[in-house]
Amino acid sequence: MKETKLLEMTGITKAFASNVVLSGVNLTVNSGEAVAILGENGAGKSTLIKILGGIYKADSGEIRIDGEAKTIPTARIAADYGIQIIHQEIILVPDRTIAANVFLGRELKNSLGMVDAKKMEEETQKVIDDLHIDLRADQMVRDLTMGMQQLVEIIKVISADARIVVMDEPTSSLSQGEVEILFGIIRLLKQKGVGIIYISHRLEELFEITDRIVVLRDGAMVGDVKTKEANRDDLIRMMVGRELSSFYTRNRHKIQGTALEVKDLSHHKFFKNASFHACYGEIVGFAGLVGAGRTELMKTVFGAYQKSGGEIFLDGQKVEIHSPQDAISRGIAYVSEDRRGEGLILKNDVKFNMGLVCLKDFVRGIRVKNGKWDEMVEDYRKKFSIKITSPQQLTGNLSGGNQQKVVLSKWLAENPKVIILDEPTRGIDVGAKAEIYGIIDELAASGASIIIVSSELPEIINMCNRCYVMCEGKITGELDEQDFDQEAMMHLMTTME
Q1: Neighbouring-strand partners of residue 224
Q2: DSSP letter string, 215-269
Q3: pTM of the model
Q4: Angle at CA 403, nearest 5°, toward 398 and 406?
Q5: 3-state secondary structure of 455
Q6: Complete domains list, the chain, with CATH
Q7: What is the pLDDT of residues 432-452, one digit of tens each?
């Protein structure tokens, strides 16, 4: 297939008040090409894509599609030009079928002007079958896993005859098997001449699926390299503007007595007979595929889910935890994998969010100890290098990495003994990841007991002292750091032996 230029964005500039977020950025995408946009949170990736998708208007610059200059004032006009964006946040109607969601807003009608549900199901099933996905068009979305819902978003875009597809962190909620399905879809789209813009913080994915990598830093383009000629260290250096001499930070800390012990803990639906322990000064990992039961196990320890059997011990004493408040009062913190949905109130400010867990320390009746509260916020702002304009800045306007630091600050202000971190670096850039790893290491050095739930095996291998592996609701193995091996872990993640 002859390669032609589908998209040219030239000299794109955008500022919000005095804050310049894009400065003369160029982006070209050819037919049948997958181009990655790489950069730290706040580098300008989202703004560039929103300009392409008709959500923002550029202050200056030009957009050409098939060589013709275009103005894209709305998302509808972008769709008319064949531009489709698959956002990281899933936007589906759970109580409708896959077919109804795929054709949402562009429903097919019969000769009487009525919605033709049968025709929509047939058309949707045709796309599903072409992509070799094990789904039925008449399935309800609410019955699908998060990973399969993400694939429905992709089916929706493909059925709309997209010519330029933007994928924003598309694998963040996918299992390994679903990732392989996604990569197969991308290869198929490339064969059909579709241009792909791929945004991900997972560098290993870029080397597998993209043809070029465009790097942004502080709103400017600092690199445009062919993937086969790219080097991981060079990409990181371009992204952060400095060497990351130690990406993972893990020092040797004194491991002391057992902080948390769980014996034969069970939930009637998600897991059974789970036993594990975590010591003070120790970082313990939990590995497993999506749906293995890791998050549900941790939420049960935290009291968000009710156990159906088993025992929990803190400092050797049996405790009953019926609610998150029980867990918090006993010194357990839980940092959710869904920081936007469960960890933060995005429409409130940084100060409010940081004080949520220890609000009792700052509010007495109608009296608010603003001085003490402000002091705590400033302390964590400096300690974790949180980039905010003021404590009154809306939390929803922060980058993913800074939001995660706010979540950590919220919990650490309560001085917990046991800190459960569920996917602590999901959706944040490499620079912010390195900073989060440094924070985790400092917490272990202070004597806290740390549990990390992670789908990234390199994160487990490089950060943890021990690791438990789960498969289909059971703990299938325990490994010490000297026995860490990705192949051995993957075997335990996929077998019930």
Answers
A1: 214
A2: EEETTEEEEEEEGGG--HHHHHHHHHSS--S-SS--------SEEEEEEEEEETT
A3: 0.65
A4: 120
A5: coil
A6: 5-240 (3.40.50.300), 258-493 (3.40.50.300)
A7: 788 889 889 989 999 999 999
